[in-house]
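tl;dr need the bound structure. longer version: we got a ligand (adenosine-5'-diphosphate) that a collaborator sent over and nobodys looked at where it sits. i said id run it. heres the input, straight from their email, havent touched it
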Amino acid sequence: MGSIISTEGLCRDFKIGDGSVVSALKNINIEIEQGKLTILRGRSGSGKTTLINILGALDKPTKGRVLFDGKDITRLSERKRDELRRYDMSFVFQSVALMSSMNAYENVEFGLRLSKFPYDKRDKRVREVMRNVGLDKRMFHRPSEMSGGEQQRVAIARAIAHDPKVVFADEPTAELDTATALHVVKLFKELVAEYGMTIIMTTHDPSMMDIADRVYTLEDGEIVE
Ligand SMILES: Nc1ncnc2c1ncn2[C@@H]1O[C@H](COP(=O)(O)OP(=O)(O)O)[C@@H](O)[C@H]1O
Ligand SMILES: [Mg+2]
């Protein structure tokens, strides 16, 4: 199907307090294939978050380019990058950021509102994605009435509802127990296989590797084979 994202000579340096520089990413050249589940793995501090943030237009590289759908997004204006994040991308984080005063349905519906999803199609779409993540029976529960795994599934439903081109998930399983974590990754796999979604997730957990279509391993800011 071809690649949706590719990077060319990506580097990211951070200046720290004492004036020294940390090279968090060094010459990263990778391709993210459309309709696949890609895992970025590596130990804590290896550069996973730095890389996924740059791929997802949350941060810019010090050097190099990111091509998204053929366009160099490192050179876009902040407004264009904001639009890209809102309509073409979505994000799932380690700690689930659901609104505690809203039930699952309302959380997902709220996400659709932010991405200007057509009003008259929202209800149908919310019910559909709640079914996709296996939560249609718990749709009207608040986050506090759900387990950690269920909350993460609501966050995933919210992330996929507006049908983004790419879903970015930074350590989405880090706060879940092993069995629940595996469920979440299997759900990602299902979304990829059945609905052709493109998902990129980071993890430091080696047990998830065989579920991915493609694994890139980071070590000290570099991709290793
Ligand atoms: N804002 C920052 N300022 C300074 N150093 C940073 C910053 N963000 C990340 N780093 C450093 O970059 C390296 C990679 O960090 P990170 O991408 O968060 O790794 P991971 O997500 O794999 O744990 C680490 O050495 C980290 O200390
Ligand atoms: Mg990280």
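gonna send this back to them w/ a short note. The radius of gyration is 17 Å.
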